[in-house]
Amino acid sequence: MTEKRILIIEDELIVAENIAAVLEAQGYSIAGIADRSTTALTLFRETKPHLIICDIHIKGKLNGIETAKAITALEPVPFLYLTAYADEVTLNEAATTDFEAYLLKPFVPAQLTVAVKLAFERFYIKHPQRVKLVPPGKRELEILELVASGKSSGEIAELLFLSIHTVNTHRKNLMNKYDAQSSAELIALAIKQGWIS
User: Fold this and answer.
1) What is the edge-to-edge ordering of all strands in the sheet holding 5-9?
2) Mean pLDDT, rounded, for 147-176
3) Cα dihedral 19→21→23→26 (10° resolution)
4) Which CATH code is given to the segment(s) 5-130?
5) Half-sphere exposure of 151 (CA within 13 A, CB side)
6) Is the pLDDT of residue 191 over 90?
7) Which residues have C-beta within 8 Å of that of residue 150, sequence separation ≥ 6?
8) pTM, 2 dp
9) Confidence grade of residue 131 (pLDDT, cut at 50, 70, 90)
């Protein structure tokens, strides 16, 4: 997974922005910030985040736990609860969902980043088919299609009006980006992902 997008569901903007800043400093990408369930569901559909950090008491008709249930009904995704509530009723309600961590506010940045890292590792080891790969860019896709058709770097360079060095750089970047050991493995992955036919 080259990019890790996180959706933050938190109705206190200052807290949400603080969470975002901590995560961005660790190299994560913020898919969006939602203060209520309706916004969260819309952002989830639009951005397809890889992980969600959710407060329990948020604005709107659904609380954070009900929002987690609504989102995971659409597609399984790892959840972390980050809340000020640790009473038995809230904990029992949270226990009815499949979450990766339950953190209490005020949070410690190091604690949050460790919980996020472990949540990614635990969830995507349990569900390897859920790993979402970022598709290649337009130029990368053109090169990939030509490699799949059996063209050499020299032929690709001529067809796309590029230098052989540029084509080879794109090919090397593609191999690194998708952790492929050979062109054949890269092409097989591209076909499996539906990027090329």
Assistant:
1) 29-34, 5-9, 51-54, 79-83, 101-104
2) 92
3) -150
4) 3.40.50.2300
5) 19
6) no
7) none
8) 0.65
9) low
Which residue intervals of the chain bear CATH 3.40.50.2300? 5-130
Q: Is 165 helix (H, G, I), strand (E, B) or coil?
A: helix
Protein fold of 138-193: Arc Repressor Mutant, subunit A (1.10.10)
Q: What is the DSSP letter of 36?
A: B
Residue 52: pLDDT over 80: yes
Q: Where are the beta strands (DSSP E) in the chain?
A: 5-9, 29-34, 51-54, 79-83, 101-104
Where in the sequence of the chain do the CATH 1.10.10.10 domains occur?
Answer: 138-193
Closest among 88, 82, 30 to 56, alpha carbons compared: 82
pLDDT at 14 over 80: yes
Task: Give the tens place of pLDDT for each residue, 88-99.
Answer: 999 999 998 889
Cα distances (Å, whole numbers) of residue 54 to 111, 177, 190: 15, 30, 34
